[in-house]
Amino acid sequence: MFGLPRGVRGCLFDMDGVLTRTATVHAAAWKSMFDEFLRTWADRTGTPFVPFDAVADYDQYVDGKQRMDGTRSFLQARGITLPEGSPDDPDDALTVRALSDRKNALVQEIIDRDGVETFPGSIRYLRAVRDAGLRRAVVSSSANTARVLAAAGLGDYFEAHVDGVDARRLHLAGKPAPDMYLAGAQALGLEPSEAAVFEDALAGVAAGRAGRFACVVGVDRTGQADALREHGADIVVSDLAELLER
Ligand SMILES: O=P(O)(O)OC[C@H]1O[C@@H](O)[C@H](O)[C@@H](O)[C@@H]1O
Fold first, then answer.
1. 68-111: pLDDT as tens digits
2. Which InterPro entries does the record associate with it (predicted)?
3. Domain edge (last residue) among 114, 138, 155
């Protein structure tokens, strides 16, 4: 049923890019922040400015990961090491923390200004599984999960959330480690073998595979179906409503 293997009793949904059209918001904010930083870095080091690619760099290094992990991962890919910094860093400090905070300020500004759109096919699917009595949780690396769900009007669809704030509080390793999804299944009272994972990020499908969930559904929004399969998706769809027809 619902395109899922027999025995699945619950669904663990990533949020950005699966339920809400916020992956592009994050990608735009990462690009704006990193390009400003990369210009400064190029001037300081006398090296060429190579901008952040909002599709390729976003998908490979940043998507699905907790904010500071995303910052570190992209900097590492460019061979740049910055100090970790602290919450008291000035806004323009060249630290992992200050860069991450700048990106977050941009994301929150866009969400507060423009609101949040959902994917209609995902909402149809969510309603169908809810009406059939399947358990439902959101498992998102974003520390802005509550804000985004509220702006999208999706707060009431889920029985549990595991987000970037919980991950920090509970010392859960971020995706691609399976810990956040395992915590989501546990919050619903399910074994991994009874839960399906829905993910658009490479780090996210890898987390689903590592957690040995009943099924990992890759949601391809950017033409990376093969990469989603290689990283751990059992099925790839471009819209969750396709699963209602299976
Ligand atoms: O910065 P936030 O809102 O805590 O989100 C962290 C990450 O959350 C993930 O859901 C997104 O795929 C990433 O793009 C984002 O960077």
1. 999 999 999 999 999 999 999 999 999 999 999 999 999 999 99
2. B-phosphoglucomutase_hydrolase, Beta-PGM-like, HAD-like_sf, HAD-SF_hydro_IA, HAD_sf, PGP-like_dom2
3. 114
Task: Say what the ipTM of the complex is.
Answer: 0.97
Is the model's pTM score more than 0.90? yes
> Is 2 within the bounds of a domain?
no
Structural domain including 79 reads 24-114
The Å distance, Cα 25 to ligand 1 centre, comes to 10
| Angle at alpha carbon of residue 29, lines to 25 and 34, rounded to 5° | 150
Whether 131 sits among the annotated catalytic residues: the reply is no
Number of domains in the chain: 2
Q: Which of 99, 114, 129 is the last residue of a domain?
A: 114
Structure tokens at 166: 């919980």
Annotated catalytic residue 59: no
Type of residue at 23: A
Closest approach atom of ligand 1 to CA 66: 6
Residue 43 is encoded by which pair of tokens? Answer: 């001037």
Which bin fits 72, alpha (ψ -120 to 50), beta or left (φ > 0)?
Answer: alpha
Contact residues of ligand 1, CB 6 A cut-off: 16, 23, 26, 62-64, 66-67, 70, 104, 107, 140-144, 164, 201
